[in-house]
Amino acid sequence: MVFIRDKKVKGHSYAYLVRNEWDNKNGKVRQEIVKYLGRSNKVVVEDIPIEYQKDPKVISFIACHSTDVEKMELTMKEEMLELLTRNDIKSLVDIYERYSQFYGLLRFYERLLAPVMYNVGELWASGRLNVATEHICSNAAHSLVKIINERISRNPNKNRNSPKILICTPEGEYHSLGCMVIESFLRSKGYSVSNIAPSVPSDSVIAFASKYDPDLIMISMTLADNIGAANKLINRVLESKLHVSHILVGGIGIEQIKTNNQKNALRKVKFLKGTKLSGILPSIKEITKSGPKYSKVIRK
Ligand code: B12
Question: From the CA of 175, how far away is ligand 1's center (Å)?
Answer without folding.
Answer: 5
